From TrEMBL:
Organism: Larkinella rosea
EC number of the protein: 3.4.24.-
UniProt record similarity statement: Belongs to the peptidase M4 family.
Protein name: Neutral metalloproteinase
Cofactor(s) recorded in Swiss-Prot or TrEMBL: Zn(2+)
Amino acid sequence: MRNHCPCSCHIIPPFVVDKLKEAGVEIPSQKTNNREFRERRDAKNALMRSEAFLVAPPVKKADRFVYDSKTTEHQRLLLVRKESGPASPDAVVNTVYENAGSVREYFKTFLNYLSVDNHGADLILNVHFGKNYANAFWDGDEMTFGDGDNQVFTNLANALDVTAHELTHGVVQYTANLTYKGQSGALNEHYADVFGSVIKQHAKKQKAATADWLIGDEIMGPALTGQALRSMKAPGTAYNNALMGKDPQPDHMDNLYKGSADNGGVHINSGIPNKVFFLVATAIETDKAALLWFETLKTLKPTTNFKSFKTALLKIAKKMANAGSVPATTETVAKQSFESVGL
Ligand SMILES: [Zn+2]
């Protein structure tokens, strides 16, 4: 089992944080490479490599545990809600508990996959992390949410797409383990956005044709009302304002970002496969497209790039269409969708 986490995967990209800083808004948001994180990760990696683990991986029940960081930067500080336990007086605790349950349920029911590792790993959720901390992240082990500054970003734990996005980074880690750099990193971000949007649409009972396809629209504070972090339907249009600058996502290979910022544009170039997913989902419906994408994920390698992703997905589309699990037109629709973004 591969479990190495290549990243601390944050929902708010570093280039947004930099733009805000230029605009005079300094919000704490990226601080996860400290000793506490590294030590816990190293200990877990050692356990996963141990012979006992490889022989008999423990199967668990994907129980949820919510911890309150009490505005410190410590994880697992105070356990405030656990599986089947009583609700908390803190609404944020209950919301993140329910949202993690929705993500777990979608993966289990529609994709036959239990928790992030398909072995029912506990879902650890930390809320109220840091002071006005404006980010949420998956660190290879657990989820952590800040409260936001309530001007630019509101509490990150309240949005289902944010929780689904971050937990999907966990799923990717335990499946294809896409390297968090360049095109494979953009595919990692892409998958996190796909299931962020898919699970939000499912919860809101939306259809592909009428869903908003926005990521992060519900965490925008009063200073950024009406904006979002990303648009899968129209990459490059999620935001355009004095605080954040303009959404840099391309929707075509002609505009592929080739610089080194953001780990080689992992949150930028994800716009290209995001657009492909939107096009396929509007043709065959979101849940069918989600199943196709998930079955493909299981066949990808850590170094998969956009081109090899297309090849892998078309192969799975053909197989699934033959088996009747997606419409017969799926391979053609997917091929045309990739072509329309220059792939
Ligand atoms: Zn991410």
